From TrEMBL:
Record SUPFAM superfamilies: WD40 repeat-like (SSF50978)
Gene3D superfamilies, per the entry: YVTN repeat-like/Quinoprotein amine dehydrogenase (2.130.10.10)
GO biological process entries: DNA-templated DNA replication; rRNA processing
Signal peptide residue numbers: none
Name of one Pfam family that matches: WD40
Record protein name field: Pre-rRNA-processing protein IPI3
GO cellular-component term (any): rixosome complex
Keywords: Coiled coil, Nucleus, Repeat, rRNA processing, WD repeat
Predominant cellular place of this UniProt entry's protein: nucleus
Biological function: Component of the RIX1 complex required for processing of ITS2 sequences from 35S pre-rRNA.
Annotated source species: Hanseniaspora valbyensis NRRL Y-1626
InterPro entries tied to this protein: WD40/YVTN_repeat-like_dom_sf (IPR015943), WD40_repeat_dom_sf (IPR036322), WD40_rpt (IPR001680), WDR18/Ipi3/RID3 (IPR045227)
Organism ancestry: Eukaryota, Fungi, Dikarya, Ascomycota, Saccharomycotina
Quaternary structure annotation from Swiss-Prot or TrEMBL: Component of the RIX1 complex, composed of IPI1, RIX1/IPI2 and IPI3 in a 1:2:2 stoichiometry. The complex interacts (via RIX1) with MDN1 (via its hexameric AAA ATPase ring) and the pre-60S ribosome particles.
Organism superkingdom: Eukaryota
Amino acid sequence: MDERVIFHTEFGVGISSLHPQTLGIQYLLKQSSNSSSNCQSNDRNLIFVSFKDKAIINSYKLPPQSSSSISASASSTTTTIANKTGEIPVLQRLTTMEPLSNIILIKDTFLIGTALKPGKTLMYIYDITSGSLINTVAMGKVHYMAIEKIKYMDTRGYVVTVSNDGRFALWDLVSLINNLEGDDAKPAYVFNEHQGVGVKDVSWDGSESVFLSCGEDGNVCCYNFVSNVIDDLNTQTSLELHNNINNKNNNSNTLFKSAVDRIVLVSKFTFPQAVLQLELDSAARFAIAVLKNGELWEMPLIYQLGKGKIANLHSLTMQGNSNNTQVALYNCSLEQDLDLSNDSLFNLIRRGIISCRVVAKGCKSIKLSMDSTSIIMGRKKLGQSCLVVDLNTSQVIKDVGTSLGLNVRAENSEGIFVDDVWTVNLKKNDSDKEFITLPNLNKVCEDSHVINVLNSGEFFNEENILINDFDKYIETNVRSIAHMFQNTTFDQNSDNNTNSKKITDNNSEIFTARTNNSSNIDEINKKDKEISDLQQQVQRLSKAYNDIKEMV
């Protein structure tokens, strides 16, 4: 396995490998200067880059790298591979409505980007498989300022938007797609816990149950996803209430139970400065915070207090009843500022003090490695690049990106931003995999963009199609039932010892002839009609005869 990192500056987007065997293998995306954000496909073969001043998205195909090619190259031309900077050309240019500040790709289908227009913030949702602009969603009253970041919670299906207006919101993906054009989109959750100042980042653990947010107010808010089973009489339907009243054996104390998913604010952590970025460990053991002054703080969330006791600062059980939670407040301080000789960790936590430590300085943005043992740190100082820092020892392990020509070269530079870290399977070589050209992105929303889960072929079979065609259904099913009765005959040696040929009743004779004659179903239908006509004629004649008889 190999581990790669993608980062960008105002001069372009670069990719570097973190694996020891592939150290020095780096790529530079051509024509990627002044980029605003980037995203990748699920297989990490395609990269999409948006720009601050251009209404366009560039796509790039990342060259595959197999373990065999690495070992062969290392043995023969080690210096060439180690120092080579590969430039990846633009694969496609997809035009958009306007410059997009943030883009994400969901399930290799939905490409979502945000843009700030005068007076409103918009979200554009594209289907890249067809090129359709399936919806343009106005953020309405939720976000009236620029969106800082946009992320996606894969397990829960929420699109998370973080804005400078002091709010962050969780949007249901299906609701965003099906939202009618012109209507204000309604998020699933809206949070305004940062005192009206800008929210900078959100992060969650691997199970998507612990959720953190940070902002310019210097607070880090911790939330829990809770699924509560509640008793609510008002949620019962009228039929259920009627059955409960009429059922004498029903327990009158039993109410209707339903599960409700909601997010609960559990804890607040206060830092001495604004927190610009957060990274939460996949197991929610600790969080890494990037402060405004460039310091990188490690904030423990799980403490070992001795005697088998553990303090879990993001656990809801510490607060008692989840239906009436009281928010726990903590003040984050550095180790050197605390007197740990006189105060134990348990006493510090009871007093609401968290002992943190500075991992590094001069940091602009970070990403945790896949095993959470090291940090990929983007520098903001002049002339620096991305550094791989060991979390335990705070020692620099690698320096990546120096040979890409993306270093900060101006005093007013914004620094280097680390975008994503991912793994690559070196044993798999997809170089022969053909790429299908993406369609151009449309400028007009589609009329119908409702997700139809019944489009799968398993929901359609011959029987369902026949049901939709009534005439064909009658012809197929009713005729088959008639053929079943055509072969029905009576036993001539039955106990009544009667001969059906001697029956004088006209209807019985016709019925016997019908049951013994199985030549044609159309003839049977014709004879039934004749019988009905004869019966009606007999009734008319009988009525006329009775009338004449009364007159005489």
